[in-house]
Amino acid sequence: MLTVITKQIVPSSILQSFGKNRANLINGILWIRSISKVSPGIVGKTKRALPAHMYKPKPKWETGDIDPYPNFDTTKILRPGFENSEELKTADDLVKRVFTLEYATRAEIQQYYSDYLVKAVQRHPLDQSSYEVLIAKLTARIRMHIKYGDIDPRRSSRRNVVGKLQTIRNFLLNKLMHADYDVYEWLKKVLRIEHAPENPFITQIDHDDRELERMRLQQQARDAVQVKKDELKLRFAAEKEKFAKEKESLLCEIQRDLEDLQIEIAKHNETRRQRARTIVE
């Protein structure tokens, strides 16, 4: 029920009854609130537009389906189970139309579309359990949900169902990719779907702002340490030649002092070994 404000002119006879209060009326016009039985959303002859925040936006279906649900001519396609009927071949056009998809249920339309995709990918008429057939059936269900989800975007349950079906289909696509990559690429072209294969060695981790800041500071500290290491490596490489020259000159001086003292190193070492052997015995 809506309250409609209407503009009504008060007759002069009523104004005269007010007497002194007539001066308080503005130009003899009053706005009188009256209740009228009008359907919600309707004012007069035009439909009232609801505010923008009361409309739910159309959902974005990021399922990877390039082609949407096709628009079949439902008046010429027979329902599943009546394709090979001998009676319908000789029946009247009106009788045939009763058995077409025009008067079929939603489940029968989905079954027809599912069979349509399955026949395009199955290798044998009895094949009902291969990866290609299962993916085709899931694709038909996903596109049917997308079609009716655009009609009624307020149903969040349909979006949840589409998400679950997409997860199962991605799992089967990954299985098929590891089993036979050529068939995997061929199936994507036939069914007109996009799929990014998952890398099992890469795990996506969502970090909060505090964790990201900590990781940034850690990386900054590692970079500063690496810069100092590189500087030390260059300085040690420059001082290496100087150290080698000093070492060589020091060894020459020691050798010269030994020659001046006329110390026979070999004889001295032999004496020390004999002394050690005597102590042990």
Automatic annotation (TrEMBL):
Subcellular localization: Mitochondrion
Superkingdom of the organism of origin: Eukaryota
One term under GO cellular component: mitochondrial small ribosomal subunit
GO biological process terms, semicolon-separated: mitochondrial translation
SUPFAM superfamilies, sorted: S15/NS1 RNA-binding domain
GO molecular function annotation: RNA binding; structural constituent of ribosome
Keywords: Mitochondrion, Ribonucleoprotein, Ribosomal protein, Transit peptide
Family according to the record: Belongs to the universal ribosomal protein uS15 family.
Identification of the protein by name: Small ribosomal subunit protein uS15m
